[in-house]
Write a structure and sequence with these properties.
heterodimer, A: 237 residues, mainly alpha, two-stranded antiparallel sheet, 7 helices, B: 116 residues, 5 helices, rod-shaped
Chain lengths: 237, 116
């Protein structure tokens, strides 16, 4: 199956493979179902099942939490604290989107442990997440400042208009490229290591690379993505 | 020999020497050059290597930031988790320009935009 990284050809082991070609065309180019799409369906299904199970557990919530309820309450408190420090009193308007984004990107980044090629290692996915951030920021700017959002680009001096304009577009491009490049370098490093080792050597030896590249780097990149989204939104509130 | 006769011999000698030289170089080097596509791939590979000189910047900058973080923890050990998370956030943002160089190198090597 196209989902698994271990392959004999080195360069092909970290490229995205197309699995099925759909019979229609979109704006003149072919449409394929790729390994990225299948991975993100599997991840969405996992998050959905997890959410349903946790919702069922919380219906019979206890006063003093134990087990899964304790873990979920700690996670929610950590997310709320992270959003409080940036957004302040506007936290409840954005915590739904930020929480969903955090869970989705975290699970995508850690899916290397399950053997999938991470969906966020595909620039198509991270570019769309950057476009969501861009849309939210611009919408809040227009809603709260009206026309002042556009005249603000001329603000200190009209000469600075190109720099301000590029700065507005550079925000989503830089956050999406940061997430993509961190994960792609992890995929390439792991592809090279797995290609180098014999079959029996692939069992425990690359674990230190997984620990640094997937676990540490993946968690930090989700934290940075969500924090920067909140910072950009807070600038326009 | 007359002067006129000697003038006829010299250009013929040059012609013979040129012919011998061409035959020798043709046997020493198999082709007369490389194809255009191979040259483009070679220059793309050199460009990909040069693009990663951009890795120097984040290395120096993040090291200096880590030094300031360590001295801040030394001055105020109670705030260690706040200082650590602030430092990691700043380092992940500073890493971005190094990653731009990596993306350019990957595009040159695998996407091969200069295919003829």
């Amino acid at each position: 199956m196209g989902l698994f990284l271990a392959g004999n050809e080195l360069a092909e082991s970290f490229m995205i493979r197309g699995v099925y070609k759909l019979p229609f065309q979109f704006l003149g180019s072919e449409v394929w179902i790729t390994t990225t799409a299948i991975s993100s369906w599997i991840i969405t299904l996992m998050i959905l099942i997890f959410g349903i199970v946790v919702g069922g557990k919380f219906r019979k919530a206890e006063e003093i939490p134990t087990g899964l309820q304790n873990f979920i309450e700690m996670a929610i408190e950590a997310l709320n604290g992270m959003a409080d420090s940036i957004l302040g009193s506007n936290r409840n308007r954005f915590i739904n989107y930020i929480g969903t984004l955090f869970i989705f990107i975290l699970t995508c980044n850690l899916s290397g442990f399950i053997g999938m090629r991470a969906p966020t290692a595909d620039y198509g996915v991270t570019f769309c997440l950057g476009v969501f951030t861009f849309a939210i920021v611009q919408f809040q700017g227009i809603k709260n400042h009206g026309v002042g959002h556009f005249t603000g680009l001329f603000q200190p001096l009209p000469v600075l208009f190109p720099i301000n304009l590029i700065g507005e577009f550079a925000n989503p491009i830089s956050i999406s490229l940061r997430l993509f490049a961190n994960l792609l370098s992890g995929v390439i490093m792991l592809g090279l290591w797995y290609g180098m080792l014999p079959i029996l050597g692939r069992i425990a030896i690359p674990s230190f690379l997984h620990a640094y590249l997937d676990l540490f780097s993946g968690c930090i990149q989700t934290y940075v993505f969500c924090m920067l989204t909140m910072v950009y939104v807070n600038d326009k509130l | 020999m007359s002067a006129q006769g000697r003038q006829n011999v010299v250009p013929y000698g040059e012609f013979i020497i040129n012919k011998i030289f061409n035959k020798i170089s043709e046997e020493l080097f198999m082709e007369n050059g490389i194809t255009g596509q191979a040259f483009i791939y070679g220059c793309s590979a050199i460009g990909a290597g040069l693009a990663l000189i951009a890795g120097i910047g984040p290395g120096v900058g993040q090291g200096i930031a880590a030094g300031y973080g360590a001295s801040a923890v030394g001055r105020n050990p109670g705030a260690k988790s706040d200082i650590t998370s602030t430092m990691l956030l700043g380092q992940a943002v500073a890493e971005t320009t190094g990653l731009y160089g990596l993306v350019v190198a990957i595009i040159l090597m695998f996407v091969k935009p200069f295919n003829m």
